[in-house]
Structure formats: C-alpha cells, structure tokens
Amino acid sequence: MKITVFGATGGTGRHVVEQALDAGHHVTAVVRDPAARLPRSGDPRLDPVIADVMRPGAIEACVSGRDAVVSALGPRGRGGGQVCAQGAQSIITAMRATGARRLIVVTASGHVVDEGDDLLNRALVKPLLRRFLREGFADFARTEELVRASGLDWTIMRPPRLTDGARRPYRTALDRNVRGGITIARADLAHAVLAALDDPATAGHTISLGY
C-alpha cells in the first residue's frame, strides 16, 4: 500500500511511519522542516517530502496516486490555534483535486461526551478538561466537522491521553468512546491507525481506543 503521512515527525506520526514500513508499505512522509529527523531515514520504501501542509497546491503531488492518507497533525502544548482543522482542510482540498479517497485523521476523545463515558467523565472530568483545553478541543471539533463533510472515505481516530509507553493490548469502540479508557500509547495508536486502513468497514466511522 502507498501511504502518505502528515505530521510524520510528531509523536504519533513517527510510529505510524515506522510501523507502516515494518508492514511493507511505501510511505511518503511530509515534513515542513528540512532538518526534521524521520525514523528509518535510509529505508528504500520511505520517501521524505518537504512541503507546507497548509498549502493544498504544495501537497497535491504528495497525495496523488496514494492508497491512503494519514493526518497525525497535532497542536504543540495547550495552544496551537487551528492547526489540525486548517491542515485537514488543506489535505481534503488536495485529495479532492487529485482523486485520492482514503483518509485517516487523528483527533482525540476528550472533546466528545457520549454513551461510552461513565458518569465521572461526563459530569466532572471532561467539563474540567474543556475549561483548560478549550482551544485545542475546538480545533478537534472543527477538524471532525470538515472531515465528515469531505465526501471522502474517512475514518476519525479518537485517542485519550497519549503516552510514550510500550505497546500492549488495547480496546477500541466504533462511534463511541471506550469506557474507562483514559490513556493509550502512541505506538498503539499508530497500530490502530494502520489496522483501520486495512479495514474498509471503518470508513465513515470514528474509532475510539484506550486500555
């Protein structure tokens, strides 16, 4: 499979790139910083491309002819403005222009309250998180609106708090949050992203995950 990864040098993106290469996929890793360090930089199946994700015309060649596109873009710290939403809009525009169809976008589970959440999360934890992470959560919500309206074959991944822990068994839930799933390692999130790419039934759905 030919996969393009945006946010390839971020915490999650690096794992997506490495695991995709391990699985035998050809990966186009889009980076903005020429000095950015990618995992497995010498792998013949890795194609690093320097491009500004916020300019659709600059990334059309990166998504054209690809079997799937992954956005692992994320804000830096509590701020970050509309990085995820603006990036998603640009990627969607480029994919529409080139005929690319399959899109996986990583957001988060914190801004969503649904039947998968227990009472503590619904009544206390998530209201508090919304107060302190208002800007980031608004970015994720806007990102999901854009992805849902894209007309593409999309899947939205909703992880809880990310860690740098080792891989271990995790749970997933379709179109609802994972009850009691409050953390997930970035390596396991990457594994779930690649699993979703291989499963056409996940198109048009959200996938939440956690331990």
From TrEMBL:
Instruction: Write down the InterPro entries for this protein, in alphabetical order.
Output: NAD(P)-bd_dom, NAD(P)-bd_dom_sf, Polyketide_Oxido-like
- Coiled-coil ranges (or none): none
Which Pfam family is an annotated match for this chain, by its short name?
NAD_binding_10
Residues in NAD(P)-binding domain copies: 7-200
Q: Which domain of life is it from?
A: Bacteria
Q: What is this protein called?
A: SDR family oxidoreductase
- Please report the organism this UniProt entry assigns to the protein: Nonomuraea monospora
